Amino acid sequence: MSNWDFKRASRVTSAMTIGAIALSALALSPAAHASDPVIFSFATVGDSRQDNAAPDATQLIPQFSGSILPQDHQWLQNTQAFSEILRNVQAQKPQLLFFNGDMIYGYGTPVPPATWSTTNINGQAAATLPNTWNTPATNVSPDFVFEYIQYAFWRGMVAPLFNTGTYVIPVPGNHETQCSPTASPYAAAPANNPNCTLSPSTKHAYAANESAFIANMGDLIEDLVTNQRFSTVTKIPAANVSNVNGLTTASAPQPGGNNGPLTTSQAYLSYSFDIQSTLPSGANGPLLHFAIVNTDPSGSDNTAPAAWLASDFAAAQTRGSSAGVATKFFVFGHKPAQTYNYAAGGTTAAGGLDSNTNHALVQQFIHVLAQYNATYFSGHEHTVNVQQLTDTTASPSPNKPFQVIVGSGGSPFDDKLTGTCPGSASVCLEPANEANPTDRYYAWATVQVHQSGAVTLSVNGFSDTYQPVQSIPYYNVPGTVFTQATLQ
Amino acid sequence: MKISLIAFPAALLMAALVPEISGASVVLDTGTPSTAGLPYTLNGTTFYAAEFNLGANQTITGVQAFLTAGQDQPGDTFTIALYDAAGFTGNYPNQLFSSQAAYNTDGWNGSSNLAWTPGTAGEYWVALEVGLNDSAVGLALPTPATGGTAPALAFASNQGNGYALGGPAIGLQVTATTPVPLPGTAWLLASGLLGAGALGRSRAAKRA
Lengths: 488, 208
Fold this sequence. Notes:
Chain A is α+β, with helices and mostly antiparallel strands. Helix content of chain A is 26%, strand content 21%. Chain A has a single domain, classed as Purple Acid Phosphatase, chain A, domain 2 (4-Layer Sandwich).
């Protein structure tokens, strides 16, 4: 066993120790599980994009001189981790996979050639693909090419899911919607990316980036309305789709207030839909309402449209009541509402919505989640964590909604190894301040809606040494650790 | 003469039948998982196996795995399979038998009415898999298993690219029927023949 392997094994042993606590808790419960059939399930993960300038140390391959796999360098995906996750998601047979943003490295300004801008979406000329390759365009932006090939690669990776009964729902992340003047490769001399016109140094969301997301993901969202592929794949139709252009644009988030100072319509970026579940008896089960929020919209970086969400939830609640069934609420965004501090005892800079200086916005967002006991799934932090949020508004709800961070789809882990490894004589050490032993696990979450109406969460993943998949405990209630949480 | 005519075929019959008289024995017992690790997931993409020795003509009658529900419900099914050790970690492992089993409760689950007789003494692998006809989507396998009475020779896992050695120590038990050893059979045959001979001599002496 090499020194590198030994260190990795030590960390796995640490994980196993904590797991013992998890299983002990499980063992204390009655052995027999009452059967409660699953009537609907979905999986969720985010952040599969690679980072050429700062890959995780475990991705450095000795035979490639310590660099990452050339394939991943070219198309900026962690293909090994993400494809392993997707294989396992397929085995779980969920009807939906929500991808919580950062499917591409992006960070440029993907303005298409003028002759390709044939459709007006989101209040501006959209970056639609040409309907013929016989185009007179001769000046194509490198940022445009850079981002579109990454989108295409990611789409290819998720394509097999549709053949095995899982429909993919995309969520925009900051790497899709923002331009970063300083991120690699844009920070090359002599100047930072000049296409980030709003600032020479700060990341911002741009309409062109949002349009590129729509051009590359819009068909998946549009199909919620047409149900041409959605219902074929999932065997159940989507309904009451909100804020998809051309249908219900009146329901778009309005600029100002708790939505933040938006400058684009957010169609296809913040949207929602219903699934009416069915019990084995044929009767209606709970109404399942899914809302996707763009947490880095143009004009209002690092916010979630809380006012829009409140209105959207109220309408869904009414629909459920009218149908005589309970409504279950699920929200998917890229940035967590509450940053998880993976560096126990250390300092983790807030990277979630709580880092916005206008703290009232995230408080209002959490307030809406709490009011409806909605579960919030996010990415952005490249780790896995489950915690419960607290409503800190003046009139707080007593509910403690779950927040599930699964930004663990393959992007470089936030909790970095120390040393250089592998491919070097240097030692490779686990972070000394790891808050939980699974902080460096590639992981995804799976939610099951049961016949009884219970909604349960399981998180599965594998270590950075790519061992077989394990159940990941939920750590964050003192004194209790368990492998399956009841969310709602 | 009458007795010897009966006794001799009877002894041969006994000799022929005795090897079929056998008792159950445990040929693999990795122990009950000590709950010291994160449970591993058994699903349609990740399988687990343990290696054990089997004697000549032993018949496997039961295979049990220590499982918890994970994401599954009581009644969800998985597959138990037996492989030849030769080529097990290659691209084309030789599966000898397989049988569907169901998860019913947290603890030992499996099949107890098997009748698998590979025939040849040697090393075999027993595997837990989820096939196309199974309903399990994510059973949990606590680990590591320790303190078993018949430890595994090795563990392996299959993450989609064939079985590889070094899998986690999961809880597995295999029971088999064991034929009476050959010396005992030979003794019975010999005693039968001697008995028949003695009876024959006794009859002859009485006639004289």
